[in-house]
């Protein structure tokens, strides 16, 4: 409880005094320099510096105040939090389409670009997925649901340039695709493709997921199709998406033509 209170106090201090902390992150200053640069009264500067010293964020050396290692780390954590909150705000419409317990890491949203479908351009969001994978060297994907009409265009786009594709298909979705002649044909073609590896397994979330060597993304589905797509090229986003894929792959079953032969077939 004491640690929680201390963290809350530090958070409040950073929110209230971030301009002072950022100024000292740029370069050490004396109190007069802080007052002049931030257009603050001397009494305000005295109070802020005292609070920052007490919190261990600032130290005095050679008559100047500068950030401590604690102060720089705290400012970095504060900025990461702000980035995540901006990402959540930017993706608000997209997130509202997901279940409340969707395991989407806020770190993925920091710096993400969000594209939602519109009635006049219903395929605009899915084009973002195609744009991301068409020039990639490798693609990891997780498909909990799918639009049957997009299967062939997706695989053709992904493999056209020799991209290595690994895809995990949710059990329920695989059974449905295997029972549909057109979709079954696409699956067979991909199983015969030397650069494509398919798996089936349990997928505990309802959004699509992909990762390339330089970008990651999620696809949010609604009852009427693709609701939107979020793309992010930050290292944290790619690591998160790749980790999600690798965790599911460990428990998934690799598909072969023999395993497809055992799946239900449509009329």
TrEMBL record:
Domain HVO-A0261-like N-terminal per the UniProt entry, residue ranges: 14-85
Gene3D superfamilies to which the protein is assigned, alphabetical: Winged helix-like DNA-binding domain superfamily/Winged helix DNA-binding domain (1.10.10.10)
InterPro entries: FilR1_middle_dom, HVO_A0261-like_N, WH-like_DNA-bd_sf, WH_DNA-bd_sf
Source taxon at top rank: Archaea
Residues covered by the Methanogenesis regulatory protein FilR1 middle domain: 122-251
Coiled-coil segments on the chain, per record: none
Residues making up the signal peptide according to the UniProt record: none
A Pfam family: HVO_A0261_N
Name recorded for this polypeptide: Uncharacterized protein
């Amino acid at each position: 409880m004491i640690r929680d209170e201390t963290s809350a106090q530090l958070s409040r201090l950073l929110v209230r005094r971030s301009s002072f902390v950022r100024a000292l992150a740029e370069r050490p200053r004396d109190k007069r320099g802080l007052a002049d640069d931030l257009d603050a009264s001397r009494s305000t500067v005295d109070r802020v510096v005292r609070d920052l010293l007490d919190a261990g964020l600032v130290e005095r050396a050679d008559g100047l105040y500068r950030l401590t290692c604690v102060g720089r780390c705290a400012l970095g954590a504060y900025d990461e939090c702000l980035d995540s909150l901006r990402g959540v705000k930017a993706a608000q419409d997209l997130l509202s389409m997901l279940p409340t317990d969707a395991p989407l890491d806020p770190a993925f949203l920091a710096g993400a670009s969000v594209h939602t479908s519109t009635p006049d351009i219903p395929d605009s969001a899915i084009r973002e997925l195609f744009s991301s994978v068409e020039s990639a060297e490798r693609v990891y994907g997780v498909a909990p649901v799918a639009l049957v009409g997009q299967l062939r265009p997706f695989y053709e786009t992904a493999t056209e340039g020799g991209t290595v594709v690994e895809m995990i298909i949710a059990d329920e979705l695989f059974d449905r695709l295997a029972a549909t002649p057109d979709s079954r044909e696409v699956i067979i073609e991909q199983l015969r493709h030397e650069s494509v590896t398919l798996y089936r397994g349990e997928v505990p979330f309802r959004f699509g997921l992909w990762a390339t060597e330089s970008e990651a993304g999620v696809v949010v589905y609604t009852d009427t199709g693709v609701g939107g797509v979020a793309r992010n090229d930050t290292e944290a986003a790619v690591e998160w998406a790749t980790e999600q894929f690798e965790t599911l792959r460990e428990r998934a079953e690799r598909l072969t033509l023999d395993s497809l032969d055992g799946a239900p077939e449509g009329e």
